[in-house]
Amino acid sequence: MILTRPRGTESPMHRLLSIAVVTSALCLAGVPAYAQISFSTAISLALDSEPKIKAAQANVQKAQASVAATRDAFIPSAVARGGYGKSTGVPLSVPEVFTLSSQSLLFSFSQKDDERAAEAGLAAANFALQDARDQVAEDAAVTYLNLDNAQRRRAAMTQEYGYASRLVAIVQDRLDAGRDSKIELLQARRTVAQIHLQELQVEDEVAIQASHLARIMGLPGNTISTVSSSIPPPLPMPDSSSEVASEASESPGVQSAFANAKVKQELAFGDRRYRLRPQLSFGATYSRIDTSQTNYTNYYPGFKGKSLNAASIGMQITIPLYDRAHEDLAHGSMAEAARARYDAEDLRDQFLDGRSRLQRTTRQLAARIELAQIDRDLAQQQLEVVLLQLTPEGSSSSATPITPKDEQNARLQESARTVDLLNAEFQLNQAVVNLMRQTGRLSSWLNSAQNLPSAPAAVAPTKP
Q1: Residue 34, beta-bridge partner list
Q2: Domain that holds residue 436
Q3: Is residue 296 one of the residues assigned to a domain?
């Protein structure tokens, strides 16, 4: 699963323009303001900015260079060296003025194993890059959803706080009139204090989520606001474990682990095929020799002139007969390859078990959402009944008179059930997005956000 960037945001220029728009909007405001970022823009900026992805891309480039190095071993190298000086006494070497040499590998039983190992390493790096992109996209998506949920909870709790404060005033008036007790007033005040504490917790949560989202997008500060209409609806989840397994049996992380195990296996196989197998190499050399500054001709009379040319070309065959240290290295390589294979299998088992548990947890959270939805709808119906009974038509048909205190209690219960529903959605967000990544559906879900209306970065009114 390779995540694609939203259309129109592929180039780095788009990212720079997006950052410039957001930064300019924040700088123009004289007081702290909230920059609205759409869902697709947040994902795109996170994929372009996260250091984890850039590090994985560097590993891919390194693996590509390793593949090229194994293949280029058959291409002859060219080396030039030179120097000039004077010597006396017994000549220690041929007086070369300059030398041109070239050599390359012609054949080796282990070379093909090295090539396959390098190709497997490149595949592992690509899988790791894919996994890093998925992790960053999941982190950005979950953070965006949680921030949007926290902002909606903050608005609902602000309304709930107003209802609770109004209830305190009503109970105080009833207490002054001798119709309520001091206990009821304390209970109402406790409800206000409890809601106020929850408001402070939600404010901290909004700040933390906004700061984290800004960091992974590469934007300064934490003054970020979401656009709820830009969030795509979640894709339907599979109904059975067999459907989950048929969609994506392994994650990119698991595939990367198996590719790394193959790297070690190929290297170990090459180490085992080292002894008693010939290695062929090519070599060519040209040298310019000058004996004018030495007494080389006195010791080697075969040199008739002061300046001579020397050239050689040939093929060398090497057969390793016995190398105990290399054999020990081969045994260690085989053990390391076996361990890498077992580690990959263990990682795959953990992934499959975790995905199965996550699917069941998601079902439970979805059922909890349904229950919270019913409770909220029931509270809304009860509020409508109370409001109807407060009308002249409803009060005449009601056996028990409804007071403003009953109205505020009904409003307070309806608002509390709305907050409970949002809390249940908050718990479901991370599980659903994580399950979509593990089933290979995250890319499709993120790409569906391109078709939704996305507002450019703008500045929302400052929260009083």
Answers
A1: 460
A2: 12-61+127-260+335-460
A3: no
